[in-house]
From TrEMBL:
Protein name in UniProt: DUF3105 domain-containing protein
Highest taxon in the source lineage: Bacteria
Membrane spanning residue stretches: 33-54
UniProt KW keywords: Membrane, Transmembrane, Transmembrane helix
Matching InterPro entries: DUF3105
Species this chain originates from: Streptomyces nanshensis
Pfam families: DUF3105
Amino acid sequence: MGSAGAKAQRAARKAKIEEMRRAEAARERRNRIITWTLSGVIVTAVVSGGWYAVQETRDRAEAKKQAVAAPVKGEKTFKDLGRNHVTTPVSYKMSPAAGGDHDPAWMNCNGDVYGEEVSETSAVHSLEHGAVWVTYTDKATSKDVKALNEKVKSTPYTLMSPYAKQSSPISVSAWGKQLNVDSSSDPRLQRFLDKYVQGKQTPEPGATCSGGKAA
């Protein structure tokens, strides 16, 4: 009886151990499945999120591209502009001039601000190089003039000067393009700069804006 009882106990312990091993194996399988599932969910989320971020960036870039490509509301376009170098006065189609025959020497236009009126024919040569010419009359407020001054000084391929004969307080001119505004805070002014500083309208893109007339 003693021997039989011992055998029964050993068999019971063995069965218990096997049962525990099976339970442990089952737990490990469940944990692996949970880990794999969570990993898959995380990878899917990361990939999806990455794709969304890339797509969102592309969408923003495309929207910006389209916005820059669109005409600036109110801008004027001038075509069939001469490009001859002349040393005689030129009668321009618009005021200020936004293209046409011009002086062989350009006005310096690397963010140059002039306190007096400049040679119009030289300023037109700067436009040919891809510059934007910012002009203003005495109707522009001192606050606007200061804001324009700061904007031009921080923007290569621009120049600024007073121009008494224009019809609006502020004008911005590029080769074949012009916009009149009443205030430096008009958002169209920055759009014009973004679009036409070294823009597609430039007859001589990349040409220098230094080494010309300084006054």
